[in-house]
Amino acid sequence: MQNSKKQTENINSQYQSQHQSVHPSVNTANIQNKNAGSQHQSIQSLNSNVQSNKQSIQQGISQKSSINDPNKPSKSKLMKKSTLRASRNKSPPQITKSLDGKTKISDNSGNDYYVANNYEKDEEEIKKSVNKKYKDILKESMAQEVKPPEKPIGDGFRSFTQLTKAGKNQNGQSKTNQDIPLIHVNTGSISGFNLFAVLDGHGSHGHFVSQFCRTYFIKKMTDYANFCKQKNLTTSEAIYNELKQTKFAYIVDIFNKADIELANQKQNFDCNFSGTTCNLVIQLNKHLICASVGDSRSIMIEDKGDKKNLGIVQLSTDQKPDLPEEMKRIISKGGAVDKITDYNGEKVGPPRVWKAGTNYPGLAMSRSLGDFQAKQCGVVPTPQIVEYTINKNTRYLVICSDGVWEFIQNEQVRDLGNIYFNKNNVGGFCTELIKFAIYSWEQFDIIRDDITVVCVYF
Question: What CATH number does residue 309 fall under?
Fold first, then answer.
């Protein structure tokens, strides 16, 4: 027992130190917290970000524009749609029209972008390039050697890997990585009680928010394990049954309380226009509970008897403001859902949450942790809950930030993942998936979002 406990501590220490970082087996329970809309009415002294954001989005970005340093020529690997990257950001940029035919865009980190309004690029040319690269990656992956089966390093799974890559700004410089992966095995020294997650921060303080929440969730789930042990619930199956009886209320509660802790935290970072997603998958023996806010996504790959075409079970929904139930809540709380309008009067970028009659906060998701200005107009921290039961067909779990999902489809992740699953090489899969995501960003844009992958073989 001492050796097993020591091994678990070593595993968790290893992964924490790196990041100072419908279907018969699925039951969905969208648990709404009636108090979610009023949790932050007491927040006072909002900083000057409010005023600056009120003045920020006066005009949008032309669909025929490209983002450039004013002293450098346009880069050739841009398609016209890629110039909407600034409007895809989860927190909207400040946009002002200049006199030289370009648009100056200042993001929330103080970086300036310049948009020339006359650039066009053949979208089909870029798509062909990306598809060719994907086929090359598949071919190269098939040629790699098969690794021997990996020995289980924890109860309930065979192996896992997490990888994260910082994004780049318009000058090609590496930016602060706001993504945080989470892997924590045998929580509270209970075998089979494992945590897997991806948190994707946004806004100028997003990296602080994601790190804060990662630490908070590990602590609260460890506290729950210790609480259960005091009740003589010492197995992961017993803890699952305890959670199930309350419809996973404890999990919902820690998301809502994490939001309150962010509001009350004494550390020197502001969360009015900064926040994070969280896609947390809790394993308790054969049971997986996915709790998600935002647009990080998790999928499970299953064997349906066709080795070349394994099935996909999506465990989470990208929580966008234009989803009917999400929009209904936002509007009922005094919010509005709309896209940015460009100079031609056309709607561009993703749907965003606004305070009705204003041009802020402009958040491109309907649920998040932090983002307190958006909380005043219907955005909530309450997670959507999906339950999955591990069965004989279960193969592997993939959790990614939208740095992967921006340009890559579920089916592409599965097809690449299958090659490495058959070769018992989870690390190789994560490495190649990040490489492909980087390549895709380079073709479609001149900046790159942070990219994070967590993969677990069962």
Answer: 3.60.40.10
Give per-residue pLDDT as tens, 8-62: 555 565 555 444 433 334 444 443 443 333 344 333 334 344 334 433 333 333 2
In a domain, 308, yes or no: yes
- pTM: predicted TM-score of the whole model, two decimal places: 0.78
Residue type for position 164: T
DSSP 3-state of 212: helix
E strands of 38-146, at which residues? Answer: 66-68, 94-97, 102-106, 112-116
* Pair 377, 272: CB distance under 8 Å: no
pLDDT in tens, 65-101: 223 333 333 333 343 344 444 444 566 555 444 444 4
Q: Which residues lie closer than 8 Å to 162 by C-beta, 6 or more apart?
A: 15, 18, 21, 181, 182, 183, 430, 452, 453, 454, 455
Q: Which of the pair, 411 or 134, is modelled with greater confidence?
A: 411
Q: Does the structure show a pLDDT above 50 at 120?
A: no
H-run or E-run covering 412: helix 410-422
39-43, 100-104, 296-300, 344-348: which range is least confident on average?
39-43
Q: Per the structure block, which two tokens stand in for 229?
A: 């042990």
Dig out the tokens for 205 from the structure.
């303080």
> What range defines the domain where residue 442 resides?
2-30+123-204+214-250+260-319+382-457
Please say whether the beta carbons of 351 and 8 come within 8 A.
Answer: no
CB 315 within 8 A of CB 270: no
3-class SS at 92? coil
DSSP code of residue 227: H
Overall average pLDDT of the 294-299 stretch: 97
Q: How far is CA 372 from CA 62, 166, 253, 294, 383, in A?
A: 30, 25, 18, 14, 16
The answer to whether 404 and 129 are in contact (CB under 8 A) is no
